[in-house]
Amino acid sequence: MDWIEISVEADGEAAEAVSELFNRLNARPDGAGGAVTEVSGFDPVGEDHQPVITVRTYLPADSPDTPQRRRQIEKGLWFLGRIHALGEPQVRALAETDWANAWKASYHPFRIGRRFLVIPAWRRDQVSLGPEDLPIVLDPGMAFGSGLHPSTQLCLLAMEDLIEPGQRVLDAGCGSGILTIGAALMGAASVDAFDVDPIAMGASRENLALNNLATPIHVFVSDGPGDGEAWMECDGARRTWDIILVNILPHVIASLLEKGLHEHLAPGGRMVLAGIIQEREPDVAADLVECDLKVEKRLIQEDWVALIAAS
After folding, report:
1. Domain boundary assignment for the chain
2. How many CA atoms, within 13 angstroms, populate the side-chain half-sphere of residue 261?
3. Edge-to-edge strand ranges of the sheet holding 90-94
4. Which CATH class is domain 145-310?
5. Engineering a disulfide at 112: which of 116, 150, 196, 199 sits with its beta carbon 3.0 to 4.6 angstroms away?
6. Longest Cα pair distance anywhere in the chain, in angstroms?
7. So what's the pLDDT on residue 124?
8. Does residue 43 have a pLDDT over 60?
9. What is the β-pairing status of strands 304-310 and 294-301?
10. 274: which residues sit within 8 A by CB, 6+ positions away?
């Protein structure tokens, strides 16, 4: 089979948006995402020089619906280009053998913070880890939550200073599972993770399996507090967590707080809220005040903000 490759260069923020577009318009037959993210410009141990992020998707050349899907993708990229700085989309034909390896050769590990090292699954045996390194092995095809977006990076940076061994952690809107994996590597006693999207659940479970984690992890589909048994203990008491990670858009943060997410924070616990563009920070801060939560620290990267809050 021959393939048509559509690729776009973008920064970390835009790469997530392009990946979401490719996953929505060109999902694989098994329901997995159709985006592949390539990061180049790193040396063999993952030190950041001038990274170049390329997001690709592949359409079967002989499929009758390919022309329509290609037009939809190109239209979607045009609209995204009005919001984010994108490179000109590149289109090329590939034979089966070229397609199978076209994107793997240039995907290198990259660091986030002091300890986290994101590694594509097929390179895990090629990377020499330092004594303090925490390797997060991912399938880059599951691009949402790949670690490229500033909000994901801000969450991981906050986790390095917040999570202590033995704590219970909740990952709200877990996506690819990258934060769940990071919390387990930081020594969490247990991690619970939920998302409203069943496809995201599949991505999370696949990536969790790649990391061979000993930490007990429970992944479940939910739209927030009250939706499912995972929010209650066996004796009917409200389940609480020491750290709650919320890397979602501001309107979803507001919805989760309205449903009482903050009431599941254990005494002395912390909530990390990201996915917040700076212009929306006042809205999220006001929502936190309504929930009697106080912002203890704010982290900034590019136009994005993460807030660390406590009761």
Report:
1. 3-107, 145-310
2. 28
3. 36-42, 48-60, 3-10, 90-94
4. alpha beta
5. 116
6. 59
7. 87
8. no
9. antiparallel
10. 151, 152, 154, 155, 158, 246, 247, 304, 305, 306, 307
| 291, 253 contact by CB (below 8 A) | no
Query: Could you tell me if 192 and 216 are in contact, meaning their C-beta atoms sit under 8 angstroms apart?
Result: no
CA distance 154 to 292: 23
Alpha helices in 149-227 (DSSP H): 150-162, 178-185, 198-211
Separation of alpha carbons 158 and 102, rounded Å: 35
CATH class in words for 3-107: alpha beta
Contact 28, 34 (CB under 8 A): yes
Residues 107, 40: contact at Cβ < 8 Å?
yes
Whole-model pTM over 0.85 = no
pLDDT tens by residue, 125-183:
888 999 999 999 987 654 456 777 788 899 999 999 999 999 999 999 998 899 999 99
